[in-house]
Amino acid sequence: MTMNESPIGDAPRTTHLRRWLWASALLNLFLVGGIAGGTWRWWAHQTEARSVATSTQTGTPTGAPAGGSPATARGLRFAADGLPPERRQAFRTGLREVRREAAALTQGSREGRAEVVRLLAAPQFDRTAVEAALARTRAADTAVRERVEAHVVDFAAQLTPAERQTLVQGLAAQQGPFHVPASPARR
Known about the structure:
Helices cover 69% and strands 0% of the residues. The chain is mainly alpha-helical and 187 residues long. The chain folds into two domains: 16-55; 76-173, Four Helix Bundle (Hemerythrin (Met), subunit A), CATH 1.20.120. 10% of the residues are buried. Residues 52-73 are annotated as: Disordered. The chain crosses the membrane at residues 20-40. It holds the Pfam family Metal_resist.
């Protein structure tokens, strides 16, 4: 047997070695993916932490881009985000008080909706009872809305014209009674 000839016993050894090389390559690929994923998560967390620190300093809501309209800020309480911190706090405190005072009305509205659902699902349909429950629910909803709107108007009366303009922009961007929908496109 010469040096260039391979013994018959090398074929299984080569196959065995190839399997180990493939296993090693897959393990290395898994490790590289894990390290890259961990680095990405760390970087994303650091970016978020910087964003929170910036929003705390600038007064924008957490999770919102600094200096811009909040992407995730929804609800009437965020309408005053463009105002100075003391005005923003006064607006939110007032809203909190209005909602606290209207808690019984809100609960009545919830109960009314549950009653409407119960009445609609009943085997015997009672139109008069459904309409009465809807009227009670509507009255409670309207009373809460009137109180919230009165607070917004009272608050706006205390603002300077520039602050009032900022509040109007915030209100228009929110969903709710002051939302200004985009006009429909004409065909």
